[in-house]
Structures are given as structure tokens and as C-alpha cells.
Amino acid sequence: MRVHADVGAEAEPPLAVQILGFKTEEKQEFSLRKTRFVYEVETCNLVTGEVYVARRRYREFKRLRDALLEECQTCAYCNHFVESLKHAPLPHRAPFVVNSNKYGAHQARKLTHFLRDLVRLVAMKVRHCKQNGHDVDRSVGLFLGVHSLEQAERSSELDRASAWLGPKTREERAELRPASLADFRFSSLSLAPSESDQDVYRSRGFSAA
């Protein structure tokens, strides 16, 4: 079920999120599922054309969603965010996979929908919460390979003020992508929060463990 955020004072975030693809890895440890899927998540700033890439496993998506629901459920301000996130479920993970390509493509589409809903919900429903807003924004940003969603959007606002060219087209973003990826191709382990924040963000899915 797709979640459509209510139209309010906040504008739609200028970040386009999609899963570009996936790869499979053979598990070293004993498991009924012999293969794990690693998804390549791209976040593109529609104004500047900057591209950020992170590689995430399914259980990292689940850990992030579960942690956000648990940490925000007692906050009155975040109630709408929590209820909306409950209606943005993750796809079910199959215990056995017969066709890896078909299964991976299906999961990638569903996870893309989830991430787009999540980014929209953070920007429009929870960001200004004094209790959880900063941490949630930061956690989701780190999961996507950016330092925070709000910081990425502020750079877009500055760019709009100094340029009249408007959002980059798909072709322009494709031309910029090779130059951007060298700087922003982040894996699950390549971003390192400060020691004081590390345990908190790890519990929300920022980990390859």
C-alpha cells in the first residue's frame, strides 16, 4: 500500500530515491537461505544533480523501520508519522528463492516505494519534532548515504537561490552521475558517525552486521 503524505506547509523533498539494482552473495554461515540480496540504493538531489549510493541488505531496511516505529510510538507529535509508517510496509522476504533475478527485481521495486514514502514522511510529518526530529532525519539520511536529509535539502535551497536553471533533467543527472559517484559511493561500513552517535544509529539499521 502506497502512502501519500498530506499536502501541508512543507514542500516535497527534492531528493529522488530508487534502487538501481541488486547483487547476490553466497552466505558463508549455515542458513536455509543460501543467498543474500544486497540492494544498491541511489539518492539523487534533483536540483544539484549530486548522487549518493549506499548498499543495503533487506534486514537493514527492516531494522530501520522497526526502530523508527519503536522510538517514535510514545511521542504525540510523531503519532501521524508512526501511523503512516505502519501503512508503508516492507515486502515479505521469501524463505526460498527459485528465480533470483525475478525475486530481486520484485523486492527492489517494493523497497523503492518504501524508501520514497519514508523520505516524504520524514520531511512532512516528523522533522520538526523536538524530541525525535533530528535523530530520525539523521538516521534515514545515513541509511541512504547522505549525512542527513535536511542538510541535503538545504544545499538544494541554496542552489535554487543562486541559479535559475531549475531541477536537472534525467539526461543531465546521468551526465553528472559518474563524477558524483566517486565522492558519494558509500557502503554500509564507509560512513562513520561520531562515537556518541554510533550505537544509536546502528540500532536503526546503519550497520552491515
UniProtKB/TrEMBL annotation:
MF terms (GO), sorted A to Z: phosphatidylinositol binding
Domain (PX): residue spans on this chain: 53-122
Origin: domain of life: Eukaryota
Pfam families listed in its UniProt record: PX (PF00787)
Transmembrane stretches, start-end: none
Family annotation (InterPro entries): PX_dom, PX_dom_sf
Name of the featured protein: PX domain-containing protein
